[in-house]
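Posting here for the record, re: LGQLAAA5.
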Amino acid sequence: MIVKVCGMRDADNIRELDEKVQPDLMGMIFYPKSPRYVADHSAIPATNAAKVGVFVNAPVAEIVETVQGFGLDYIQLHGNEDVAFVAELKQKTTANVIKVFRVTAEVDWEFLKGFEPHVAYFLFDTETKGYGGSGKQFDWQLLGAYPLDKPFLLSGGIDQESVADILRLKQQQPQLAGVDINSKFEREPAVKDIVKISRFVKQLKN
Ligand SMILES: O=C(O)c1ccccc1N[C@@H]1O[C@H](COP(=O)(O)O)[C@@H](O)[C@H]1O
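Prediction output follows.
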């Protein structure tokens, strides 16, 4: 199971997470309205994890510049970006794309098909007023009906108590490739509780 820890910013916290948890993916938020916004790219140290930049309806040129300046491995599109936008981005950068959808009972899985050729993963989050980082879960049972081949990451309010439900969902839905954890593991915005994350990851992987 892939583990992505999102909303990282503090250099010491990033080093500690890298050393003690070794997540597969580490996410940095490049959305100015987020309390986890990374304003100073140069403050982020090197890590062993693949680096994911999270963007919300940002222009292609800004994303491409950030990918290059920052050496991002993945671009997470957490806004309302359409297929043409994702295709253009794929032409202009070598980074992999993770496209986010907020899942409700009205979800139209067919709509996602057009994105499939351009993305490495889908990521499913909760529908809220903001774009993400809400700490709220959606009804994961809706993912039982996911009909596509593209693997996806689960996100939205995942906490320490979520492990049993995640493992149950994995048995039901093999396309569940991993989880993305964020606000429920924070001491303050953009500072994660490494002990909590360590415990969660051990339970998930054992
Ligand atoms: O974390 C944020 O502030 C944020 C802001 C805008 C878009 C995405 C954001 N984070 C992503 O939101 C999900 C769910 O987070 P949470 O566990 O509910 O706090 C996660 O994928 C983050 O990458």
